[in-house]
Design a protein that fits this description.
alpha/beta, 4-stranded antiparallel sheet, globular, binds magnesium ion, binds adenosine-5'-triphosphate, 8-stranded mixed sheet, about 325 residues, Rossmann fold
Length: about 325
């Protein structure tokens, strides 16, 4: 059963203290204008992410996932709303501040590995490149680049040119490149989109290891349904708004506990997210099952709120009452 959550998500990692969220999005709106058409990619999205959280964003194609990631990465500016990362207000940043933000605060991993790296350089040269560009390259940086390739399991491939690596290996180099400048935030847009399931699982495990080792806050956009068992929280976006979130909990199996064994199992709690104005998105399958279209009845019963479907006659009646009402208002009498 779905549950609702209005408060800040619970602290889920040992590194996340009870502090201001690292990332705070409120009523975020992004409208793209192409010729005379407007596409509303984000329509009032609320999201909070704690420092050191490892989370995934899922949602249908066109729901606004990449738009959100691009805004968090400083590649795109929102049309309205509020977004802060580590206390920085992304809407108020100057172009020069944004350039620094992109270099020092965020690392990117894209699905198309070509966007991250240069094919004629070796794996290690690719990881070193952002450090060279940042103008601080010495022995410590050389060791750091090596360490990163070890973290992603490519210690024995450092001198291979990218063209000599498999797709999965290239994607792991891309993760190392994303981490080169030691960003506190790593954004990955479908990092496992073009690798097989086993490699995808290894890559998700790597993200967890990176979070545990360096405290990096990691946001992964993915279509991979298996992601749930690999991250702390999955947030689903629908039509440019957060709709549900699922939190993974490790629980002790009480039946086994009674027999003297401690067996750790996983449970997943799914919540529906309420926005600042108290609106929630009812899952589409629920609406379809009860043939709910435009109106419902809301009843408070004890500590529960019940949403009841209304018959189509009732709905029509309500619509015609509404029409009369607006006509009356238009003519100034009631
Ligand atoms: N640069 C752009 N110009 C105009 N419209 C855009 C632009 N980028 C995205 N959109 C539109 O905004 C909406 C959200 O797009 P977005 O790329 O964020 O979706 P997504 O959730 O990442 O989808 P996918 O899973 O297919 O990658 C879509 O309707 C898209 O057509
Ligand atoms: Mg996308």
């Amino acid at each position: 059963m779905l549950q609702t959550e209005t408060t800040t998500p619970a602290v889920r990692t040992p590194t996340a203290a009870a502090e201001e969220p690292f990332i705070f999005c409120e009523n975020l709106v992004k409208i793209y204008k192409v010729a005379d058409l407007e596409a509303v990619a984000l329509q009032g999205l609320d999201l909070q992410i704690q420092r050191g959280e490892l989370m995934a964003i899922i949602g249908n194609s066109g729901s606004g996932k990449s738009t959100l990631l691009n805004i968090l990465g400083g590649l795109d500016r929102p049309s309205a709303g509020r977004v802060t990362v580590g206390g920085r207000d992304l809407l108020k940043m100057s172009e020069a501040q944004l350039v620094r933000y992109k270099r020092e605060v965020v690392g990117f991993v894209w699905q198309q590995t070509a966007r991250n790296m240069l094919p004629y350089l070796t794996a290690i040269e690719n990881v070193e490149l952002p450090l060279v560009i940042s103008g601080r390259f010495g022995r410590a940086e050389r060791l750091w680049a090596r360490e990163l390739l070890e973290v992603v399991g490519l210690a024995d491939r450092t001198r291979h040119k990218l063209s000599e690596l498999s797709g999965g290996e290239q994607q792991r180099v891309a993760i190392a490149i994303g981490l080169a400048n030691r960003p506190p935030l790593l954004l990955a847009d479908e990092p496992t989109g073009s690798v097989d399931t086993r490699t995808a699982a290894t890559i998700f495990d790597m993200f967890r290891q990176i979070r545990d080792q360096y405290g990096t806050t990691i946001i992964i956009v993915t279509h991979d349904p298996k992601v749930m068992s690999k991250v702390d929280r999955v947030v689903a976006i629908r039509d440019g708004k957060t709709s549900t979130e699922t939190i993974r909990r490790v629980a002790i199996d009480m039946a086994d506990f009674a027999h003297g064994n401690i067996v750790l199992g996983e449970t997943h709690d799914e919540f529906v997210v309420l926005d600042g104005a108290g609106r929630l998105q009812i899952p589409r399958e629920y609406l379809e099952k009860l043939s709910i279209r435009k109106k419902v009845r809301l009843e408070l019963e004890g500590d529960q709120i019940i949403i009841r479907s209304v018959s189509s006659e009732e709905e029509q009646e309500a619509a015609s009452d509404e029409e009369k009402d607006t006509r009356h208002r238009r003519w100034g009498f009631r």
